[in-house]
Every structure is written in structure tokens, then in C-alpha cells.
Design a protein that fits this description.
Elements: E1 19-23, H1 31-51, H2 59-71, H3 76-88, H4 95-98, H5 108-112, H6 118-131, E2 139-146, E3 151-160, E4 163-167, E5 184-190, E6 193-199, H7 200-204, H8 208-212
Antiparallel strand pairs: 1-6, 2-3, 2-5, 3-4, 5-6
Helix pairs in contact: 1-2, 3-6
């Protein structure tokens, strides 16, 4: 449960303009995201080792290292588009199909070596863009609810040229918030920060404390 203590709107340019954002950090416990943060460090070390070794036999690390070398001198917009395309080429497979469990968040290199579902795609894109020098402050994984499908979904949002680009495993092109008019965002994370979303009409009605203190769906829902 997320406390409303310290409620304040925080700027997320062009990201779901019908919603206010509360920064909550440790007050939103996400054990699987904590594990991914550790995995990002381990996987980064594997990629760096592979880049320094022409004979690297670490297949997923070699794949990422090659893409980083190829895109290193490209502009940000091209990097975002190329990362979206490269990661979306990995096969989709639900956690139930792959692991026989409801939800599991994979490390980027485990995902690149096999398959995954929506949050795995978002995590891998986050990892790739960090490898290309994109700041954590310009990246956030967003979990939102789709009323049409009655399901949760995960995407990566990245700022580029002052605008918010959306990287979605279900789209070959880079999308924007205009492509998600009915989306109801629940929370967003990057390395170091966590946010929850509240509809502006709820906030104006003075109900933000009630809404923010609702139990969060957290990690069990993306990819279901």
C-alpha cells in the first residue's frame, strides 16, 4: 500500500497528461524490480567484458555489445528506433508458457537469450538505451491498465528531443501518448525513482490520498 505522505505532482513531459504523478520511491515495494536493478549491473559487466574480448563466447552479451557498437555514433532518435526494432525481434512468450508461473521479470541478457513477455521487452530496451549512454532520468518503465483488453501492459518511455517516445513490444514504430487515449497508468519506475499516477479529476476532487492508498497491482499483473 502506498502512503500519500509527501504527495506532489512531478513533471513527466507529455506522459499521460490526464494524470498527476506522485513520487513514492521505497513506499512502493517492488521486489522483482529490485532484483532487476541488480541484474542490470551484472549484465552490464558481462557486456563490457564482451566488448573488450573479440573472442567473447557469451552469446547474449555479444549480441548486445554488437548492437551498442553499431549504434554508438547515431543520434538519439535513431538509437531509440533501432533498439525498439532489435528488442521486438525477440520472440514473445508469456510467463505461464515459459515458466509455468503467473509472473516473472527476467534479466535483459536472459531475455535476449530466449523469449519473454511485455515487461521483459521494456526492461531489455531500458538496458539497451542505458548501454548507449541514455540517463536513467530519461527512462521509465510504465505499467498501465488497458480497459479494452481488461489487462495490464508494460512499455518503456524515453525522452528524445524534448518529447516522450513510447517503445512498445506490440508496435514496430515508436509511438506516443496519443496512441494510448484510454490507458490508465498505474506506476512507473527507473533506477532510483518510483511513481504512481492519479487522475487529475480525482486529485482536483481531493481524493488523491484515497486513490494513492489503494493497494497497487504491482508486479503480478503485466503480461497476464
Amino acid at each position: 500500500m502506498v502512503s500519500a505522505k509527501g504527495w506532489a505532482a512531478e513533471e513527466m513531459p507529455d506522459l499521460f497528461p490526464g494524470f498527476a504523478v506522485a513520487r513514492v520511491d521505497a513506499r512502493l515495494p517492488l521486489p522483482q524490480w529490485e532484483e532487476i536493478i541488480s541484474a542490470l549491473r551484472r549484465d552490464s559487466a558481462r557486456v563490457e567484458a564482451c566488448r573488450a574480448d573479440p573472442g567473447c563466447s557469451d552469446r547474449p552479451a555479444r549480441r548486445v555489445a554488437g548492437l551498442v557498437e553499431r549504434l554508438a555514433s547515431s543520434d538519439r532518435s535513431h538509437q531509440i528506433a533501432a533498439v525498439n526494432e532489435a528488442v521486438n525481434a525477440v520472440p514473445y512468450e508469456s510467463d505461464a508458457q515459459k515458466f509455468g508461473t503467473q509472473d516473472r521479470w527476467q534479466s535483459p541478457l536472459d531475455f535476449f537469450d530466449g523469449s519473454g513477455d511485455c515487461e521483459d521487452f521494456a526492461i531489455a530496451k531500458y538496458f539497451m538505451l542505458r548501454q548507449l549512454g541514455v540517463s536513467d532520468d530519461d527512462l521509465r518503465i510504465v505499467i498501465y491498465f488497458e480497459p479494452r483488453n481488461q489487462a495490464m501492459h508494460a512499455i518503456l518511455a524515453s525522452t528524445a528531443d524534448g518529447r516522450m517516445a513510447i517503445l512498445d513490444n506490440r508496435s514496430a514504430r515508436i509511438t506516443s501518448v496519443a496512441d494510448y487515449p484510454a490507458a490508465a497508468p498505474k506506476y512507473a519506475v527507473n533506477v532510483g525513482k518510483r511513481w504512481v499516477f492519479v487522475r487529475l479529476d480525482e486529485r482536483l476532487a481531493g481524493r488523491e490520498k484515497e486513490v494513492v492508498e489503494m493497494p497497487m497491482p504491482a508486479e503480478a499483473t503485466p503480461g497476464r
